[in-house]
């Protein structure tokens, strides 16, 4: 069974009682990892639980095989001198007698910045949130890698005559924030409910 326990309990308190695994407070919520060839990469899935959980790693659905340059130790999978063939999805499954959790990283092998062919930025986008009336919502958007200098705009969709789109399918949006890392919405009210969107584009000085 999947663990849905609240993360409000500290790690030290959580392990005092028998229960399924959950991610340690040290776990970073990152899924996309980009590295140039010949570099190192470490994928981490630190978890806690009672009984102490075990961890198993998979690459693209197959059991991960260790080698001279690839090792899985404790909660960390390390790959030294990465090559293009190392790209793919790496999944850790953490389980004990009470349940299991899993996390998937996407590893991309990219060329050095000076050699890279222009492409859309890789981002770890914001997540949906539910907050109480008058509360604060904080949306994070991390640009994991980009060929050019990234600029961010936070947009809000709005409704016109019962629709969020024009006759041509273009969305009705307005810019509510520029270059904000993160974007914070304080004192949330009913009028703040709706659809938000992040628009990411790149530019090159002098062009």
TrEMBL record:
The keyword Aminoacyl-tRNA synthetase does not apply. Its main location: membrane. It is a single-pass membrane protein. The keyword Signal applies. InterPro entries: FGFRL, Ig-like_dom, Ig-like_dom_sf, Ig-like_fold, Ig_I-set, Ig_sub, Ig_sub2. GO terms for molecular function: ATP binding; fibroblast growth factor binding; fibroblast growth factor receptor activity. Residues 1-28 are annotated as: Disordered. It is found in: Membrane. One of its GO terms (cellular component) is plasma membrane. Its EC number is 2.7.10.1. Residues 21-108 form the Ig-like domain. SMART domains: IG (SM00409), IGc2 (SM00408). Gene3D superfamilies: Immunoglobulins (2.60.40.10). PANTHER family: FIBROBLAST GROWTH FACTOR RECEPTOR (PTHR19890), FIBROBLAST GROWTH FACTOR RECEPTOR-LIKE 1 (PTHR19890:SF10). This is receptor protein-tyrosine kinase. It comes from Octopus bimaculoides (California two-spotted octopus). The lineage of its organism: Eukaryota, Metazoa, Spiralia, Lophotrochozoa, Mollusca.
